[in-house]
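agent> step 3/5: call structure_predict on target 'Tyrosine recombinase XerC' (Acidithiobacillus sulfuriphilus).
agent> reason: downstream docking stage needs a structural representation; sequence fetched in step 2, passing through unchanged.
tool.input:
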Amino acid sequence: MQEAVAAFLAQLADSGRVSPATLAAYGDDLGRFAAFLQNHGIDGLEQVDRAVLRAFIMSERARGVGVRSLRRRFAALRALYRHGQRQTPQLPNPALDFPIPKEEHPLPDWLAVDQAQALMLAGSAPDSFLLRRDQAILELLYSSALRVSELVGLGLDDLDRREGSVRVTGKGQKVRLVPVGKPALLALDRYLELRRELAQEGETAVFINRSGRRMSVRSVQDRVERAGRTRLGQHLHPHTLRHSAASHFLQSAGDLRAVQEYLGHAGIGTTAIYTHLDYQQLAKVYDENHPRAKQPSPPLPPKQGAS
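tool.output (status=ok):
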């Protein structure tokens, strides 16, 4: 592989068709690709298929490589394969028409596990309606990796305290069942005790404002931002907690299918295929791996009617 890259770069330099800067960039890009292949025991271009290219993309993205740089890497790869096919016409070109994102979609900020734990512990003893509600919001956003729109859309009937789950209606009105960690369940219990006193008659929303009506997305964003400033000294958005939960879950479990179901994604990128994972398996993986599922179990409250 190293020899193929060296021969290609030499031919490109002799042609005079590219600038020294482009030549250097191609050399760096192809050098990284060659190193990736070597680390995976792949010796030549003929052994590379689209699965290898997908693995290369994931490896580069994990290192923080942006879409623009990835597109340049694949431009270099396509040029390398064209050169190789001139020498060996039967050489397949898996980089041809390989789908690369056309624009950058930066990932949201995320918290380290110890930061997430500190955020939750900072409000471990709430003693008012607002503090209890905001603590329950933070716990549930992180515990179940909810979108803020999913959180504000929750109704009392969506909570299953005994099973430790929440029924979520996500994008495209797709419904999924997601585990809820023990600290989040306890925070919800504490909050719901005071919610009963303030909720307007007939209001079914889990999270309400001081007027007793369903909270807005903007209100939740403001409260999360406030918690980030006061508890961590930094900006904090609800989606940061969703991304943090998913990242921590994946790092611990290593089960991409479980995380996919957890987040309610139909697919990952342009090549992933959605595969079903039943709730019991998702719950098992969650209990074994999510940071907020490893706390002592709160006492089970007596079963009560919806309020």
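agent> step 4/5: record observation. Residues 113-293 form a domain with the hpI Integrase; Chain A fold (CATH 1.10.443.10).
agent> proceeding.
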